[in-house]
Write a structure and sequence with these properties.
The chain is of the alpha/beta class. The protein is built from six helices and twelve strands. Strand 3 and strand 4 form a beta hairpin. It is globular. Bound molecules: adenine.
Length: about 240
C-alpha cells in the first residue's frame, strides 16, 4: 500500500478521479480513499493546509494502513533561481523553516527538531524513489530540480523571508506540508517522497500567481505521481 497526501482538493483531483474500487473511511474529519491506482494499492487523502493537518494525516496512514511509501504531492513556491511556474521539484530532503529555538542561545541551528532521541534539521526523502520520480518527471517533459523542500505554516510572499530560507537551508522550494509528512515518516521508519510543481515565486506576486496557476501546477505534480505508480508495475 502506498499513501498519497495532498493539502488541497485540486492537488489530489487527478489521482482520485482515476482511483478504481474506491472505499472511503473518515477519521478525525479527513477522508481516506483506498483502492487501486495505475495498478498499485493506494490510500489517498486531502489533509488540509499546514503542518499539523499533514502530520495528523500521515500518522493516521502509518497506523492504519502501514504504507511502504508515502508520497506528498502538490504545488510550491519557487526558491531556487531559474525555477519557473510549472517546473517540478522532487524532494531530496525536507526542513521545517519555521521551527526555531535559536534565541535560547545554546547554538541550536534554525529548523532543529528533536524526536526519537535524535536531532534533525534535514528530514530524509527516500533516495531511490526520488531518483525514480526525477527520471519519470524528465521523461514526461517537465523541467525538474531535485532539492530540499522548505516547509512552514506560512505562505511565503516576500523577498526577505524567501532569501533567508534559501541562505539558511539551501532550499529549492517552499510549501506547507512536506516537512511534517517527512517528520512523521522518519518517526515511523516509512520511506517518503515529495513531488512539488511550482505555482509561484514566493515573492510579492505570489498570492495572485498561486491562485492562477494552482490548477495546472497541481496536475503536473499529480501526473508525475501517476506515472511513477504505473512504472512500479512494470519493474
Ligand atoms: N505553496 C505554493 N506556493 C507557496 C508559497 N509561496 N508559500 C508556501 N506554500 C506555498
Amino acid at each position: 500500500m502506498i499513501g498519497i497526501i495532498a493539502a488541497l482538493d485540486a492537488e489530489l483531483a487527478l489521482l482520485r478521479g482515476k482511483l478504481a474500487d474506491e472505499n472511503i473511511r473518515t477519521l478525525s474529519g479527513t477522508n481516506y480513499y483506498t483502492g487501486t491506482l495505475a495498478g498499485q494499492g493506494v490510500v489517498l487523502a486531502v489533509c488540509g493546509v499546514g503542518k499539523v493537518n499533514a502530520a495528523l494525516c500521515a500518522q493516521t496512514m502509518c497506523l492504519l494502513w502501514q504504507p511502504t511509501l508515502i508520497i506528498n504531492t502538490g504545488v510550491a513556491g519557487a526558491l531556487a533561481a531559474g525555477l519557473h511556474v510549472g517546473d517540478v521539484v522532487i524532494g531530496t530532503a525536507a526542513v521545517q523553516h519555521d521551527m526555531d529555538v535559536t534565541d535560547i542561545g545554546v547554538g541550536d541551528p534554525p529548523g532543529l527538531l528533536l524526536f526519537g532521541g535524535e536531532r534533525w534539521v534535514e528530514l530524509p526523502c527516500d533516495a531511490f524513489t526520488t531518483k525514480r520520480l526525477t527520471q519519470i518527471a524528465e521523461a514526461n517533459g517537465a523541467r525538474v530540480l531535485p532539492g530540499v523542500v522548505a516547509t512552514g505554516d506560512q505562505f511565503i510572499h516576500d523577498s526577505a523571508r524567501k532569501a533567508w530560507i534559501v541562505e539558511t537551508f539551501g532550499a529549492a522550494c517552499c510549501e506547507m506540508e512536506g516537512g511534517a509528512i517527512a517528520h512523521v515518516c522518519a518517526a515511523n521508519a516509512v520511506p517518503c517522497a515529495i513531488v512539488r510543481a511550482i505555482s509561484d515565486n514566493a515573492d510579492d506576486g505570489a498570492a495572485g500567481d498561486f491562485l492562477e496557476f494552482l490548477p495546472i501546477a497541481a496536475q503536473n505534480g499529480a501526473g508525475i505521481v501517476e506515472e511513477y505508480l504505473r512504472s512500479r508495475g512494470q519493474t
